[in-house]
């Protein structure tokens, strides 16, 4: 489900409640995403960012959004964009093409072995 929200405390806090998780669990996921540090290293930053997102670094907000299972998009006013359905269809096609290339490579390896 994709929807647009203003970046505010309520949006991030509501998502946290919706997925039934804690700040510590989100901090743990952020530590995994970054591949460094312990969850406690990110707990305070995560808490402050959720409380006051406009005072936080964009990278922190993006990490939190990703940790909560989301993605952030930018829409430029002067650029024609695909509607959401077309965008997601394009993503699926790209993944399918990649999968087909991998299958082709695997089949070629099997043929070469015989």
Summarize the structure.
It is built from 5 helices and no strands. The protein is mainly α and 114 residues long.
Explain what this protein looks like in three dimensions.
The longest helix is centred in the C-terminal third of the chain and has 30 residues, at 84-113. The protein has helices spanning 9-18, 23-34, 39-51, 58-67, 84-113. The model has no long low-confidence stretch (mean pLDDT 83). It is an all-alpha fold and 114 residues long. The chain is extended, with a radius of gyration of 19 Å. The protein starts with 8 loop residues before the first helix and ends with a helix. Helix 2 packs across helix 3.
From the spread of the alpha carbons, the general shape counts as: extended
Q: Low-confidence segments, ≥5 residues, pLDDT <50?
A: none
Q: Gap between N and C termini, in Å? A: 47 Å
Helical content, roughly?
A: 55-70%
Radius of gyration: 19 Å
User: Count of helical segments?
Assistant: 5
**Main sheet summary:** none
The percentage of residues in β strands lies in: under 5%
Please count the beta strands (DSSP E, at least 2 residues each).
Answer: 0
Task: Report the structural category.
Answer: mainly alpha
N-to-C series of helices and strands: HHHHH
Mean pLDDT: 83
